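Design request, tokens follow.
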């Protein structure tokens, strides 16, 4: 049912009862942004099919901008000559009465794959037509073929040639039989000549290889023999030449016998076998370092590196004379840095404590005082001690070296004055580890010493000296000796569950 209650009566009467009035025109709002994009350009009215007439150009004429006229020099050079304006460059052949001759393609007539564009690209014999080859073979006369009876009995071949051929055949057979007999006769014997494939000597020794480093470093490492004149036994160690004047850096325990007894002789043995006497310049038992001097001309000197630049995992090489085997090298890596090490002193001397480089390069007795070099061949440590699980002290891959930065500092003082002074805090301490603190516990305080002046008491646990943590008594000794006498150092300690920091003016030993 259609609702016509709202229809216009006039329209309803004109169109009939079944028609509705048109709906009002709906004009939705247009977005201004879309109008700017899709609307007519400014100044354009009406439909889009009207041509747009541009404004007059600069010459006062309407229309598009024309290209500038051709320069007179170019027009004169490339235009037609005067009077030849209607002449074309080439008259058509039809105007002259000639008809163009149709030229056959290059590949017609004879099949030439080099000229035929439809020929396949293949690898084959020479591009010779088959008919030409057949013609050549047909024109060539064929020779008569000889049979065996004709050769032997037809007198086609001279008897002398047949006899010579037979002699050659007999000789070949005889030689083959003799060779087979000799092979069969000698093959069953146990002895004979052997054919050995020898390889060429290895030559892959680029700069920086172990062989290259050993070649450059070994001349600067010497072997030291310490024994009494006429004696059959003595001490054996190694040393590193650090100065062209003949100064050699080594361990104190290598030359301790010569330090205690002036009658003991030290002999330095160089890489080329040269032997010369060495004199003790100075020795420091607390750091296990000593300097001896030899009188030589232009010795090979070790290049000094910086141990402070080392990192765990860096490659290193130990050079020395382990077990009296001169000029030996072993390789490994840096296993740890700043490792506090305490070793027993030689000839009843007190224990020696120093901060060491730990390496897994094999170090044995005789390596002491030798060089620990990095991957460039620069000295980064002085081999000093090993840790072993056997009574004879064999290497188990745990060796220690004194860092080169610290060793060169001690060596310079020994060369300058023959002795070394160390910073001292004025206490005796023991390692302690508890649930709340771990460090070096003060056992006694020297009266009037640096620690007493700073207020440190017995029972205090020192946990830090300067910027270095202290976890045991050995690390306390190392941390104090890292500073100079007279230097003021903050010391952190635990007392009655509280942490205190006191400033200590270090003394000297």
């Amino acid at each position: 049912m259609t609702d016509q209650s709202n229809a216009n009566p006039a329209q309803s009467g004109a169109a009939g009862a079944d028609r509705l009035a048109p709906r009002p025109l709906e004009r939705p709002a247009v977005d201004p942004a879309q109008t700017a994009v899709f609307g007519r350009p400014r100044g354009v009215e009406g439909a889009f099919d009207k041509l747009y007439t541009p404004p007059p150009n600069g010459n006062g004429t309407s229309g598009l901008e024309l290209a500038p006229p051709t320069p007179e020099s170019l027009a004169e050079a490339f235009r037609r000559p005067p009077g030849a304006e209607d002449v074309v460059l080439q008259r058509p052949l039809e105007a002259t009465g000639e008809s163009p001759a149709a030229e056959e393609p290059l590949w017609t007539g004879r099949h030439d794959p080099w000229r035929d564009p439809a020929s396949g690209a293949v690898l084959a014999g020479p591009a010779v037509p088959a008919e030409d080859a057949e013609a050549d073979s047909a024109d060539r006369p064929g020779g008569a073929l000889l049979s065996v009876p004709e050769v032997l009995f037809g007198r086609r071949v001279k008897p002398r040639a047949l006899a010579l051929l037979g002699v050659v055949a007999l000789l070949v057979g005889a030689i083959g039989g003799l060779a087979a007999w000799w092979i069969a006769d000698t093959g069953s014997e146990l002895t004979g000549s052997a054919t050995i494939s020898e390889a060429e000597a290895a030559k892959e020794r680029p700069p920086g290889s172990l062989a290259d480093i050993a070649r450059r470093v070994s001349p600067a490492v010497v072997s030291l023999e310490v024994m009494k004149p006429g004696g059959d036994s003595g001490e054996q160690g190694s040393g590193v030449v650090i100065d062209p004047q003949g100064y050699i850096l080594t361990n104190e325990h290598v030359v301790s016998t010569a330090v205690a007894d002036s009658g003991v002789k030290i002999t330095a043995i160089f890489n080329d076998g040269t032997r010369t006497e060495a004199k003790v310049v100075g020795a420091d038992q607390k750091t296990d370092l000593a300097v001896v001097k030899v009188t030589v001309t232009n010795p090979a000197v070790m290049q000094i590196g910086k141990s402070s630049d080392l990192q765990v995992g860096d490659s290193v090489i130990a050079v020395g004379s382990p077990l009296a085997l001169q000029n030996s090298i072993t390789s490994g890596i840096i296993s740890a840095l700043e490792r506090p090490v305490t070793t027993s002193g030689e000839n009843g001397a007190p224990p020696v404590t120093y901060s060491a480089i730990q390496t897994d390069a094999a170090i044995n007795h005789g390596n002491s005082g030798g060089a620990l070099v990095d991957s460039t061949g620069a000295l980064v440590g002085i081999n000093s001690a090993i840790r072993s699980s056997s009574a004879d002290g064999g290497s188990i891959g745990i060796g220690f070296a004194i860092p080169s930065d610290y060793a060169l500092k001690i060596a310079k003082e020994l060369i300058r004055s023959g002795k070394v002074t160390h910073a001292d805090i004025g206490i005796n301490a023991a390692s302690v580890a508890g649930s709340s603190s771990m460090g070096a516990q003060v056992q006694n305080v020297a009266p009037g010493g640096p620690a007493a002046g700073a207020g440190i008491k017995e029972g205090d646990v020192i946990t830090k000296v300067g910027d270095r943590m202290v976890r045991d008594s050995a690390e306390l000794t190392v941390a104090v000796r890292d500073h100079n006498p007279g230097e003021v150092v903050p010391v952190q300690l635990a007392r009655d569950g509280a942490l205190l920091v006191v400033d200590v003016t270090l003394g000297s030993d």
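Comment from the thread starter after seeing the answer: thanks! Residues 1-15 have pLDDT under 50 and may be disordered.
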